[in-house]
Write a structure and sequence with these properties.
about 425 residues; Rossmann fold; 2 domains; 17 helices; 15 strands; binds 1,4-dihydronicotinamide adenine dinucleotide
């Protein structure tokens, strides 16, 4: 079996963590159990480009139990958990991922996964599908799935200009994915990453959240819950208004720059904090990004302006400016929750990866009948994920009475 990982000797440590994560993923476990019986992916090859974490490992095992041959590479050079990669290789699943790999090796690994000629591809940020459309045009998978907002935006752009040549399920757009992953997952784990990198006290400090989408809202809520004074920076007037109604101060990045102790970008956009903002920041301000790509902070410009750059702690670099101010950057401006912490908790990824597993099954069941466009999973599948989750929590779900159903679907009854 071909693979490229840091150290196969880490397999036992990895297996323990994979099992622990699995215990917190009851929905995926239920789907895996059904997959084991029904084998809906029998004989299909799945090529996945996802963060190589203990939770992803559980998804890979569920797909394998569903009958698929699976190969995995990383969707971010810094997020790979080397022990998990080793554990998967020990399970017979080819993995091509090494934490800290350079761009060359990262893309070599994407090609290695495409070399298995996947029937289904799974992406987190659309790097795999992009390579499929540029360099590996000889391949024609049945379809692909996309995990994150940024990937879906890239794919929609491809669909609009007519370049997209395969159907893609936007797993990101399932309600159960979005709510858990973007809001609760990023909310908690982005702060976890910043705290692990810096060990600062959030209470009483000014936390500036740039972008108030699902992720930004989660980050703001959790920072608020820990006693921080939250400032939101937004370009969308409706979302900015929502932030103000949720009780946060809303201001421009320029105005927030001299106030913030911690800045967290979650926009999916480029250079949202740049030199004109860095110039106004306080000595000791911490900068972190939880958006998909490492371009939200203009670190090239900061690097050029700095007179010195030194690591201060694990995953925290200090940039010293000519006027003596020091700005601290967490996880090199990459996804802070994955670079400086362990990504989303397993409970969150349970929802995302249950949707991924169902999306793979959905694509295989419709092989050849789908158009090259972006699909969202049907609401019934989303609801199935929510129901299994509620059951696992012991929560009761109220049922509509027949009279209520009639009332809600009719128009005759008034007051
Ligand atoms: P979203 O599209 O719902 O929200 C982004 C918000 O940023 C929008 O309200 C937009 O108006 C705002 N924005 C754009 N440019 C801005 C600027 N220059 N200044 C201020 N605000 C600006 O997206 P969502 O779902 O919140 O995701 C945000 C990013 O986080 C994406 O890149 C996504 O892929 C990524 N993501 C990261 C996760 C993680 O684990 N860290 C998990 C899920 C998503």
């Amino acid at each position: 079996m071909d693979y490229d990982i840091a150290d196969p000797g880490l397999a036992d440590d990895g297996a323990r963590r994979v099992a622990w994560a699995g215990r917190r993923m009851p929905v995926l476990a239920t789907i895996r159990e059904r997959f084991r019986r029904e084998r809906p992916l029998e004989g299909r090859r799945v090529g996945a480009c996802l963060h190589v974490t203990a939770e992803t490992a559980n998804l890979m095992l569920a797909l394998r139990d569903g009958g698929a041959d699976v190969a995995l590479c990383a969707s971010n050079p810094l997020s790979t958990q080397d022990d998990v990669a080793a554990a998967l290789v020990a399970e017979g699943i080819p993995v091509f991922a090494v934490r800290g790999e350079d761009a060359d090796r990262y893309y070599r690994h994407i090609h290695a996964v495409l070399d298995v000629k996947p029937d289904i591809t799974m992406d987190d940020g659309a790097d795999l599908v992009t390579v499929l459309h540029t360099e590996r045009t000889e391949l024609a998978p049945i379809g692909s799935t996309e995990e994150t907002t940024t990937g879906v935006i890239r794919l929609r752009a491809m669909a609009e200009d007519g370049t997209l040549r395969l159907p893609v399920v936007a797993v990101n757009d399932s309600a159960t994915k979005h709510l858990f992953d973007n809001r609760y997952g990023t909310g908690q784990s982005a702060l976890d990453g910043i705290l692990r990198a810096s060990n600062i006290l959030l209470a009483g400090s000014h936390v500036v959240v740039v972008g108030y989408g699902d992720c930004g809202r989660g980050v703001a809520d959790r920072a608020d819950g820990m006693g921080a004074k939250v400032i939101v920076v937004e370009v969308d007037p409706i979302r900015a208004l929502a932030a103000a109604m949720d009780g946060y101060e809303v201001m421009t990045a320029r105005d927030a720059a001299p106030i913030g102790d911690v800045f967290i970008t979650v926009t999916g956009n480029k250079h949202v904090l740049r030199m004109e903002h860095f110039e106004r920041m306080k000595d000791g301000a911490i900068l972190a990004n939880a958006g998909h790509f490492d371009i939200e902070l203009d670190l090239d410009a900061l690097g050029k302006a700095a007179v010195a750059r030194r690591p201060i702690r694990a995953n925290l670099d200090e940039y010293e400016l000519a006027d003596g101010r020091r700005l601290l950057v967490a996880a090199e401006g990459r996804l802070v929750n994955l670079g400086a912490a362990e990504g989303h908790p397993a409970d969150v990824m349970d929802m995302s990866f249950s949707n991924q597993a169902l999306a793979a099954e959905w694509l295989v069941g419709r092989a050849g009948s789908l158009e090259p466009k972006i699909y969202t999973l049907p609401a019934e599948l989303d609801e199935e994920v929510a129901r299994i989750k509620l059951e696992s929590m012991g929560a009761g779900l109220e049922q509509l009475t027949e009279a209520q159903e009639r009332y809600l679907s009719g128009w005759q009854e008034g007051t």
